[in-house]
Amino acid sequence: xxxxxxxxxxxxxxxxxxxxxxxxxxxxxxxxxxxxxxxxxxxxxxxxxxxxxxxxxxxxxxxxxxxxxxxxxxxxxxxxxxxxxxxxxxxxxxxxxxxxxxxxxxxxxxxxxxxxxxxxxxxxxxxxxxxxxxxxxxxxxxxxxxxxxxxxxxxxxxxxxxxxxxxxxxxxxxxxxxxxxxxxxxxxxxxxxxxxxxxxxxxxxxxxxxxxxxxxxxxxxxxxxxxxxxxxxxxxxxxxxxxxxxxxxxxxxxxxxxxxxxxxxxxxxxxxxxxxxxxxxxxxxxxxxxxxxxxxxxxxxxxxxxxxxxxxxxxxxxxxxxxxxxxxxxxxxxxxxxxxxxxxxxxxxxxxxxxxxxxxxxxxxxxxxxxxxxxxxxxxxxxxxxxxxxx
Length: 391
What we know:
Blueprint: E1 3-10, E2 24-25, E3 30-37, E4 43-49, H1 58-68, E5 75-79, H2 97-123, E6 126-136, E7 140-147, E8 150-156, E9 164-172, E10 179-186, E11 204-205, H3 208-221, E12 224-229, E13 235-237, H4 245-261, E14 264-266, E15 271-283, E16 301-314, E17 317-322, H5 328-337, E18 342-346, H6 358-363, H7 366-369, H8 377-390
Parallel strand pairs: 2-11, 4-5, 10-12, 17-18
Antiparallel strand pairs: 1-3, 1-6, 3-4, 6-9, 6-14, 7-8, 7-13, 9-10, 15-16, 16-17
Helix pairs in contact: 1-2, 3-4
């Protein structure tokens, strides 16, 4: 029988702020962790951090492996992709000793939160049962907008969005009414609060949409609600302002609960993890500060770039976690090809910016210019994923 346990820990930012453009905590950041135990004694662990992206997760991965008894390859580190959290920076890019000290402190606090969440998860291991479900979702919109100067970032409710929320509920085998953890995923970036400041002009830290929805789900269901980023490379919340956060959080949590009401049992006695490296065509990425809407841009091919596919199999369900951000249509296409048996997650075990669809290069979108992957990489990646799922 499969075992699982979940834990949650606060990321302590006392003494870290102000740092990396952030001044004050509006709502707290957390680390959430779920440990799985197989009948043969092997463990696996997934750790979700309220962060924008993770450049270097080595110390967190090592700590999670140590605490849970997993091999490091059996740990998934991912983020909620909130835009309102400080990054751990490369020390040489920081301008003062004070910034470097705060940077070290932030890195230490992240590891400490991972340790605490994983310890709680391991201590709570118990036999579990699984259910999967899906419901309509209304919080996301396409963010690629055609302007007179070219395609750029905005909110386009008429553009393509996979408007679904997908869930995996893990409940106690001895008490099926008790939720151990609820995994839920949507094609959306958690950026409702992006750029929001207090009245005094202080930039705020926030767990944003994912944090608000998880808080509500944990209040309603118990256990730990863990948000996983879907195919959100060209997706945004349908509103981006401080007074929309509560409303959208309530809506997203309610839609996840609707998916739970429709859930069907998933038979799985163990979790099997594997990894595959895929080589994709690459290009020279534009200087970030030069990016702007344009009708003319030269995409310059530049060899190949490898990307990692992390695969988890739970009975008939195959979950593939990838590093780059892909378009919502990419994820929808793969889910349609493998109905009921596949889920795609992004920003898992590293971040590689964008891997857009071919249409994005034709349009010259922000994602296409800001990508290290060349046009056609999406087809290479899709073929690799579909071959994995069909094995």
